[in-house]
Amino acid sequence: MLTLKDPSLLKTRCYLEGRWQGADSGRAFAVANPADGSTLAELPALGAAETRRALAAAEAAFPAWKRKSAKERAQILRRWFDLVMANQDDLARILTAEQGKPLAEAKGEIAYGAAYIEWYAEEAKRVYGDTIPGPSADRRILVIKQPIGVAAAITPWNFPNAMILRKAAPALAAGCPIVVRPASQTPLSALALAELAERAGFPPGVFSVITGPSGEIGPALTGSDIVKKLSFTGSTEVGRALIAACAATVKKLSMELGGNAPFIVFDDADLDAAVDGALISKYRNSGQTCVCANRFYVQDGVYDAFAEKFTAAVSRLKVGDGTAPDVTQGPLIDMNAVTKVEEHIADALAHGAKILTGGARHALGGQFFEPTVIADATADMKMAREETFGPVAPLFRFKTEKEAIALANDTEFGLASYFYARDVGRIFRVAEGLEYGMVAVNAGILSNEAAPFGGVKQSGLGREGSKYGIDDYLEIKYLCLAGLDG
Ligand SMILES: NC(=O)C1=CN([C@@H]2O[C@H](COP(=O)(O)OP(=O)(O)OC[C@H]3O[C@@H](n4cnc5c(N)ncnc54)[C@H](OP(=O)(O)O)[C@@H]3O)[C@@H](O)[C@H]2O)C=CC1
Ligand SMILES: O=C(O)CCCC(=O)O
């Protein structure tokens, strides 16, 4: 049973057209707690008709929302930020209940998500244009930036709060209404955010959250002329399909897709720091983030020492229900995730790898899995090519810096990468040589609201967060001023 200080944050209806509504059809779907399989709530399964209504309301809200001054929009965003932080404990409880991550991590995610609201409340006021010297004396070139129009977001289950706020905050700050369709496994966090958005004073239609089957809502969003911009976080496979579906209406796109992050430990690294970084990078959210280290490349000279220290640290992680004290790793999101992790481990063992710790379902049963470290990993294993998205760290051995860079870049993905080294020349060579949108040097975690988050290659398009993140919701308009000579 989910006990909240403010039970009205647990919603069982969707928020569109500025009202709480059920499905036209009366259909519903259940949201389960991954720690014990219990049903947390039944939510409305909206379809294409309700999606079209949400979009029509967003379109109707657009002119007045964009006409507000940046300061007025910032004030509403700021109220939303304050409300999210004032309700941090309840929001974290909802998040842990539907997603499984430990409560401390969930609280961290609420603050992380809220930081995007705060950041973009400030950035709203800094949407600057340009004046450019014209090619002739009688002309001036002015550049202004305007909101692109109605935005839509499709978000994943691994960060049920932050992935919404990383998209909604810049959209709303720029002057774009947004319709959010959260993952079916974690819609309660999204609806709680809608409750707080309503309290903050967003006008009807400016922020909506709709739940229901992706097969119905997805095409209604991608096929709509009203939606000028789609922002998606999730698998590369679904991202590709969404890009194709948006081609007909030529939408602007932001895509945060899969990763296959390398974590390189060089001979000159501070090994204790590398172990700490590896722990957070790999086992945060039970390994279920697109920036989680997926492949550990360790240089020959420190391989054994790193493997020993890292394995000892991983063995101390505590698995359990995310609401229990001291738990550092919750359950995986569903049984498909458990099966995928098992398949990757079985494949690695069949190719000659050796388990240093873990390697099996946890004694707690259900969706709990042991934090695992695997030695003697090689390039022909599945986990070298695919995102495992679970608590498994495969250790690969390498000899030279050039080899490490080549191995790290040998993937179609290019989201996050990590390396530990102290030689300053090496730090620049490797950082510049890695084909990734983000490189963490001597750090195991790199996300924050001030930094541009995003990938290259098949990891996606666009950047979220930072001063750059708002550009994805703005169009550049060129004003040609002629006849100024008099
Ligand atoms: N980059 C990242 O952050 C993430 C990467 N992943 C990767 O993807 C794998 C699979 O995870 P999964 O949750 O299935 O990721 P998906 O890409 O399938 O899901 C992400 C979101 O897209 C929705 N969706 C799925 N199919 C469609 C569609 N055809 N049209 C519109 N929306 C759609 C999902 O809805 P619904 O919930 O209803 O399926 C969810 O809201 C993971 O193992 C991991 O490797 C997963 C999540 C996040
Ligand atoms: O997995 C994701 O898509 C988001 C990564 C979490 C983060 O922002 O660090």
TrEMBL record:
What PANTHER family would the database entry show? Answer: SUCCINATE-SEMIALDEHYDE DEHYDROGENASE, MITOCHONDRIAL
Upper lineage: Bacteria, Pseudomonadati, Pseudomonadota, Betaproteobacteria, Neisseriales
* InterPro entries listed in its UniProt record: Ald_DH/histidinol_DH, Ald_DH_C, Ald_DH_CS_CYS, Ald_DH_CS_GLU, Ald_DH_N, Aldehyde_DH_dom, Aldehyde_DH_Superfamily, Succ_semiAld_DH
Q: Which UniProt keywords apply?
A: Oxidoreductase
Q: Which residues form the active site?
A: E256
The organism is Crenobacter cavernae
User: Record's SUPFAM superfamilies?
Assistant: ALDH-like (SSF53720)
Say yes or no: keyword Oxidoreductase present: yes
By sequence similarity, the record places it as follows: Belongs to the aldehyde dehydrogenase family.
Q: Which residues form the Aldehyde dehydrogenase domain?
A: 20-478
Q: Does the keyword Amino-acid biosynthesis apply?
A: no
The cross-references to CDD domains, in alphabetical order and at most eight, read:
ALDH_F5_SSADH_GabD
* Entry protein name: NAD-dependent succinate-semialdehyde dehydrogenase
Q: Which domain of life is it from?
A: Bacteria
